[in-house]
């Protein structure tokens, strides 16, 4: 015969483990998304600062290419 209370306890334990794994996965994805959002905000802030800087420069094309290289060096997502 099967010990039904034991089966119920094991089923609840398994479900708790599955819930914990899902919550951990969601938490990890949220951390990655927050990190990417922060990096994107920093990149846009730097871009805006460089565009403000370019308004005062005469040799704007070469300066712009340097700043685009700097901005493109940022990695938006860390996987």
Model description:
The chain has 79 residues and is mainly α. It has one domain. Helix content is 81%, strand content 0%. It is built from two helices and no strands. The longest helix is centred in the middle third of the chain and has 51 residues, at 4-54. It is rod-shaped. The two termini are 49 Å apart. The mean pLDDT is 70.
Tag the structure with descriptive keywords:
79 residues, mainly alpha
Task: Give a brief description.
With 79 residues, the chain is an all-alpha fold. It contains 2 helices and no strands.
SSE arrangement:
Elements: H1 4-54, H2 60-72
Helix pairs in contact: 1-2
CA radius of gyration is 25 Å
Question: How many domains, in number, for the residues?
Answer: 1
Structural class: mainly alpha
Mean pLDDT: 70
Percent helix, as a range, is over 70%
Could you state the order of secondary-structure elements as H and E? HH
Low-confidence stretches: none
